[in-house]
Amino acid sequence: MFDDPNEIPTRIGFLLVNNFSMMAFASAVEPLRSANRMANETLYEWRVYSVDGRPVSASNGIEVVPDGPMAQLDREKVVAVVAGIDVQKFEDERVLGFLRRASRQGRAVGALCTGSHVLAKAGLLDDRRCTIHWENLGGFTEEFPEIEVSSDLYEIDRDRFTCSGGTASLDMMLHLIGRQHGQTLANQVSEQFIHDRIREPHDHQRMELRARIGVSHPKLISVISEMEANLEEPLTQTDLAERAGLSTRQLERLFRKYLNATPTRYYLTLRLQRARQLLTQTSMSILSVALACGFVSASHFSKCYRECFGRTPRAERAIGGVTGSARIALIADELPVLAGQA
After folding, report:
1. DSSP letter string over 190-229?
2. Residue 255 to residue 39: CA distance in whole angstroms
3. Which of 24, 174, 248, 267 could cysteine-pair with 113, CB 3.0–4.6 Å?
């Protein structure tokens, strides 16, 4: 895949799934266009497909008119599934069967953003290393525990390629262009997009913790890192303090000063945010979600969840009727204030 510089043009078919990520899609296509322009020849050709050939809506509501139905994807050497919000609800055996056939025919099959979930359902990530958007990582791990999934920017494992979405598509395509046609061309394309550094596959998806929370105190960063790494089996406040070389009183003061929350409340909020992801992205039972987030019973979990989000876990599942950007906006509006709630 993308290895033979003499195989020109390389033909790529993008299969769009409803609510796909426009950013991930555009970030994959634009480097190919620019590579052709910089090289002054057609190194890449691409076509866009949907299951039935009808227009497909991105998660931002913009419809894309495809070049044809999925059946015509047989002409492409490389197949890339582009997904986005609510991919865990995707159930279409026609697509899964098509992807399996494409793999058996020796074609490279990959995914952008949450498209990894579709490949996993098709059984195409067994014995392959993959990645997925960080927000979906927890749910993916719970649903496909046998698959090796990383939090890296993108993964290329033999005839499979996956990326975490967003601008990671740009870095992955630049990497593949460089591999096939040389780093000079990849750098020229990168400059066209004011992209000053082509990130490596194993770069992390998320911002550093200190940038995410807007705090640089090293001991506080250390404690929150421990919290994020231990959601299923929460550490006690005493354990957290000892690992950071603090007293429990010092720990309390740090959280009050920088985050306007107690350590206990902040930790609980992290666990509940993880629970929310599992509720909306997996079919796990409410009890299983509770246990995966460090709660000893479904009733205690439900009580804490309702106090934090204003609805029960069961009601959260019902919000599945509010889809796409509307639900994401609803969640995003709430998150900044949760940790500070008493």
Report:
1. HHHTT------TTSBSSPPHHHHHT---HHHHHHHHHHHH
2. 54
3. 24
Tokens of 37: 């322009």
- Spatial separation of the C-alpha atoms in residues 163 and 172, rounded to whole Å: 7
Domains detected in the chain = 10-192 (3.40.50.880), 209-338 (1.10.10.60)
The amino acid at residue 78 is V
Tokens of 336: 């900044």
What per-residue confidence (pLDDT) applies to 324? 41
Q: Residues 235-253, buried b or exposed e (16+ Cβ, 10 A)?
A: bebeebbeebebeeeebbe
DSSP three-state, residue 83? coil
**Over the stretch 20-29, which tens digit does the pLDDT of each residue have?**
999 999 999 9
> H-type helices in 18-58, by residue range?
22-39
pTM recorded for the entire structure: 0.79
Q: What is the rounded distance in angstroms from the CA atom of residue 155 to the CA atom of residue 137?
A: 14
